[in-house]
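name: query_chain
kind: protein
chains: 1
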Amino acid sequence: MSDANARKRRVVILGGGFGSVYTAMHLEKQLKREPDVEILLVTRENYFVFHPLLPEIVSGNIGLFDTVSPLRRLLKRTTLAVREIDSIDLENKTVTLAPGFKPRQSVLDFDHLVLGLGTVTDFRNSPGLHEHALPFKNLADAVRLRNHLIHVLEEACIEQDPALRRQLLTFVVAGGGFSGVEVCAELNDFLRRAIRKQYRSLKNEDVRVMLVHSGARVLERELGEDLALYAQSILTRRGIELRLHTRLETATPGAAILKGGERIPTKTVVSTVPSSPNPLIESIDLPTDRGRVKVDETGRVEGSDHLWSLGDCAVWPHPDGNGVCPPTAQYAVRQGELLAGNIAATMKGKEPKKFGFTGLGKMGSLGHRSAVALLFDKWKVSGLFAWFIWRTVYWMKLPGFDRKLRVAISWALDFVLPPDTVQLRVEGSGSVGHVHYEPGETVFEEGDLGDSFFIVLDGEVEVVKKNGDGQDHVLAHLGPGKYFGEMALLQTRTRTATVRCSKPTRLLSLKQRDFGELVANLPELRASFEKVADERSRDNEELAETAVESNE
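structure:
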């Protein structure tokens, strides 16, 4: 950051969800006459996703980018840092960001810090789900699921084996809350509509969609018994098989395994549970309740005057005195507005206000022009009218006129046009890849963070370290079959030397995470790497001492 910015008071907001983005939006209004204050938002993506409409991407009711708003358009004054977060240092009031194109960390200082990191998909205690279940939490998950569904339909059309065909056309969704019910309903609608309109070699009765839920009824905790029973009747009428009082235990490449051992042959397992607080919260010393940050009625972290938290990662007391605020968008948006006002008030020496929002109700879509809603915790609405309310409310909440227009057009066209069944192959080439360098080009520099391991396939590299006079001293030449980069990865430190190419060179590159998986599961390989790393460290020290003596 520039010196001018360094002199400014800085509010750093972590996260790109409803709470964080709306905090930034309202801070811009609150501090528009405060030029000495900088607002900085740290997020993994440079866009904001309107999550309530994500299931409709699966069914194709709306387009891929209809739910996405560019953050730079929403936030005119806020500085955007599109990076992962490595660590948070509360004592020194800094946030360390992961490297970008250059493997060097960036450190941001702050005067006020807002934690809006949300939750992450957590399969740690569910073996098999991490490898074989499709999560449904963000835009990438929605695109991945839609691509997978189309791929399965294409394969089923030409599959001659009846057993494999049944397996391909069996779909299991785990989770009976809003997310699970909505994605299951949209998935079911899309499959049956696509088969009716475009995959005519398949039959509607060939499709088996199953919703697995550990409770007695879906949506019962969210909406109560009456609306839960109505929702169940709509889902079953549309061909969805409900498996209640059970849960998804694990998954394999060809089956979903339910609690008790029942095996459902399938190639599609979608899990909307479980989720857990962001691991970054666990890494810092804060008052927490089951991994979520404890805050007071103003949104300030207990025991602090400059730390704030909101949304899914915060335990925010409910204004009615009963329990805590639910982790929903309507609460996160209003928490963001209050937090912005309270941060501005604190900067001006004023007292922060308490949260007073008690909720407008709960709504859930059941697909195909049907929904359920509990308005103001007393009015129960279902069917077409609830669906109309659901769409109207969320349409009005979409940020920006352009997004409202896009979604309105998509919804109108959905009434008359068949669903698109285009499979977008957006997967990358993987974390293991080939890289090419020309003579004189640098693979990495001394002081860079260790992020990859390299094997020389063709050509030659030289390992270089600067001596006391700042002159380059060549420590080694490595040719085909040799490897480098393991020292920084094994010891979690920065590079101790520079590696550059002396000839046209082709390398095999393995990313840090995959290198870690490899050595963690092959102890003998790790021991071999560590032995070589120790030898290289001793050789480097000896060569460096020789270089110093020769200079003297």
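note: Residues 1-5 have pLDDT under 50 and may be disordered.
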